[in-house]
Amino acid sequence: MLELRNIGRRYQVAGREVVALHDISVTLPQGSFTTVVGRSGCGKTTLLRILAGLTPPSEGTLHHGAGATPRVGVVFQDARLMPWLSVFDNVAFGLKGRLPKETIEQRCNSALELVGLQGFRAALPAQLSGGMAQRVAIARALVMEPDLLLLDEPFAALDAFTRRAMQNELVDIWQKRRPTVVFVTHDVEEAVLLGQNVLELDQGRLVGQAPIDLAYPRDPTDPVISLHRRHVLKRLLTPQTSSTPSPSTLKETL
């Protein structure tokens, strides 16, 4: 279990303080799939960076139920593959020098098989489609055997057909491996299709949580999905009465 208690994050921008996150308290059960949705600039990526340990909170604490810091895997919006390395070497990059060669081979082969790219291990990134490149990025995160898998709008640049296929593949991988997943998106339908729990952020505040108790795979044409989507949108579109400065002037990469 991962518990966030009163997490906040402030930045100094152009001589003034901007609140990117304010008083975020939420519990992420072990092995759960949580989606985080909101407008660009609402603090989604800041929250993900705090979970990844890349950005410290200005206030509040993170508590890990088991006591030990979890192993973390991160998948970004673009695949960020090294163009001079093969698919296999991109996946293996973070393991080299840390594990025996046989262990690296086993982990990478298993991850590539899981994402359906075992036949492309020798290919270079330039020879891959966008969806295939994102599969490599997911495999690269999986070989770290993460307890916590963080994904920052990983399918945003994909066409609708590839995106839907990748959503289903991600759910399948999660069900097989059961890491704790936190998936950031600005697409409300995607958040509802993927998440067991949807966290709704607006102006750095948690304005709602929506448990989605539906079996996988989920059908976007299901009326229940549409109902959840409408409820999430309604909360996100309701004006928030707060004197907290909006973080919308910050880039989403903060």
Please characterize this protein's 3D structure.
By secondary structure, the chain is α/β, with parallel strands linked by helices. The chain is built from 7 helices and 9 strands. It has helices at residues 44-52, 87-92, 101-114, 130-142, 160-177, 188-194, 223-237; strands at residues 2-13, 16-28, 33-37, 59-64, 72-75, 148-152, 180-185, 197-202, 205-211. The radius of gyration is 18 Å and the shape is globular.
The amount of helix comes to: 25-40%
Shape: globular
Give the structural class.
Answer: alpha/beta
Radius of gyration: 18 Å
Uncertain segments of ≥5 residues (pLDDT<50)?
Answer: 242-254
Spatial arrangement of strands, main beta sheet: 5-6-7-3-8-9
Q: Determine the N-to-C terminus distance.
A: 26 Å
Q: Which sheet architecture does the biggest sheet show?
A: 6 strands, mixed
Give the tally of β-strands: 9
Layout of helices and strands:
Layout: E1 2-13, E2 16-28, E3 33-37, H1 44-52, E4 59-64, E5 72-75, H2 87-92, H3 101-114, H4 130-142, E6 148-152, H5 160-177, E7 180-185, H6 188-194, E8 197-202, E9 205-211, H7 223-237
Helix pairs in contact: 3-4, 6-7
Please describe the structure with a list of short key phrases separated by commas or semicolons:
alpha/beta; 7 helices; 254 residues; disordered C terminus; 3-stranded antiparallel beta sheet; 9 strands; 6-stranded mixed beta sheet
Summarize it.
This protein is α/β, with parallel strands linked by helices and about 250 residues long. It is about 30% helix and about 25% strand.
